[in-house]
Specification:
Length: about 260
């Protein structure tokens, strides 16, 4: 079974690369409505072939402009979020070079950030502000890197400044919604994952991508829960470090609640 899914996964990725990427590029340039439908269709297709089942717990609160902030466990987090909606992602620059997936990330207008270059932060924040004021939700992984799945790392406040920049550049906007979100991998083959199981499914550090994909295929179906918490309002008087800390606290609570539900 994993071999069959692997075959169809590769075929689907190649198909999207040959046909989906050019179509999405054209649709975004010409502002066609289908431009918002292709990414979730792509993500749902790849999730299905990987055996990744995504469940949403909660709902978005607050008004646009909105920045969603989540913990980060694996490269599949992007697929999971994209399967539910079409946010603009903030991703590490290395993603742009990934085979096939990188090409689709580019035409989806993902905001790439160089994590090793602090001087890149203002450019990224400005791009995030433009996306949000244009009505797009922006998804930021608050930790700045993926964790081992055992817990939530400290959130970096640098990119929360995108909300501050938006308010400064667009005075007609009163506040920016900060939507906490937590992603947790809960089950594999129908069995609840304990701490060691969640760590095995995490993709972090210098782990290779291909072996992790094969692991997912062998453990499928894998259940993933995205939990949404109550939103915060970032105003002109807000401090980005305080907001980052409060968002981190809420994401920790959401993660712990998800783990409690599965008895992990």
């Amino acid at each position: 079974m994993p071999y069959c899914r692997a075959f169809f996964l590769v075929a689907a990725l190649i198909g999207f690369y040959l046909f989906g990427v050019p179509l999405q590029y054209l649709a975004r340039r010409r502002n066609w409505a289908i431009a918002r439908r292709i990414p979730p269709f792509f993500a749902r297709t790849i999730c299905a072939l990987l055996g990744l089942r995504v469940q949403l717990d909660g709902q978005q609160t607050g008004q646009k402009p909105r920045m969603m902030v989540s913990n980060h466990v694996s490269w599949t987090d992007i697929l999971a979020f994209a399967s539910l909606e079409t946010p603009c992602f903030v991703a590490k620059s290395e993603v742009a070079g990934w085979p096939l997936l990188g090409a689709f990330a580019k035409v989806q207008d993902t905001i790439f950030v160089r994590r090793d270059l602090r001087a890149d932060v203002p450019r990224v924040n400005a791009a995030m502000a433009e996306k949000m004021v244009a009505g797009e939700d922006v998804l930021l992984f608050g930790e700045g890197t993926s964790s081992d799945g055992a817990g939530v790392l400290n959130f970096k406040p640098s990119h929360f400044a995108a909300a501050r920049d938006l308010l400064r550049l667009f005075p007609h906007v009163r506040d920016v919604t900060i939507q906490p979100a937590a992603i947790t991998y809960t089950h594999a083959r129908g069995k609840p994952l304990d701490a060691m199981g969640r760590r095995a499914l995490a993709w972090f550090g210098d782990a290779d991508l291909a072996p992790h994909i094969w692991l997912l295929l062998k453990l499928a179906p894998v259940d993933c829960m995205i939990s949404l918490g109550s939103a915060l309002a970032f105003t002109a008087e807000s401090d980005r470090k305080t907001i980052a800390s409060e968002t981190e606290r809420k994401v920790r609570e959401l993660t712990e609640a998800a783990v409690t539900k599965i008895g992990g």
